Predict the structure.
Amino acid sequence: MRPYTLAALLSPLPCAAHALDLPPVQYPTLPAQAATATGFVPEGWTLESSIEGDLDRDGRADLVLVLRQQDPRNVIEHDGFGPSPYDSNPRILAVAWSRPAGYVLAVQDHHLIPRPDNPVMSDPLEDGGVSIQRGTLRVALFSFSSAGSWSMGTTAFTFRWQDDAFALIGYDQNSVMRNSGQATSVSVNFSTRKVKRTEGSIEDDKESVRWQPLRGSRRWTLQTVGDGWVFDPQAGGD
């Protein structure tokens, strides 16, 4: 199973924790083209990160951008658990194709990377984040709760540009219970339509592996997956 250090497993005892009531957000439409990464950043937002890599197999280095809103109304004072004030500003994930005259926007999405809404939860991009691996786009969301749950882990989505969309080709969820050491993982290959489920413990190398067919035939894309925390790869069955 995936190794976890003792320090990562130690945490305060669980207790009640609730999401905050967040101000509504009006998400902007990004510019259709720009000369640089910063040219895609609308007013009131900042470029949190950008990476380069060839995603459409044309030999050029495309852009993957993570933008974050900078609205002070989304920095919330509260009297519950977790940090206060708490920054609930949301993110936009965007991809831009490299062209001789600059970059052209391919896609933008504000659902996959969840908006922070609970002060006891880790930032989803804290340990993982966005990367380009072998020509695919990978978004890994980290989950750790300082109160209310013993579970910690990572949920990763792998997308490949095909048929004019970023198609979901892989889903990998790994989690461990910090109190018991029980570890589980789910790996879905949307190309072979197979699901691998693994159970074990961080205390030994013994594990149980089960293979299952993926129910349904829905084709998921970056713009149809929705909230990465609530996505169910088995949904959309025939």
Notes: The first strand starts at residue 33 and ends at 34. Confidence is low (pLDDT under 50) at residues 1-17. The chain has one domain: 26-213. DSSP finds one helix and 14 strands in the chain.
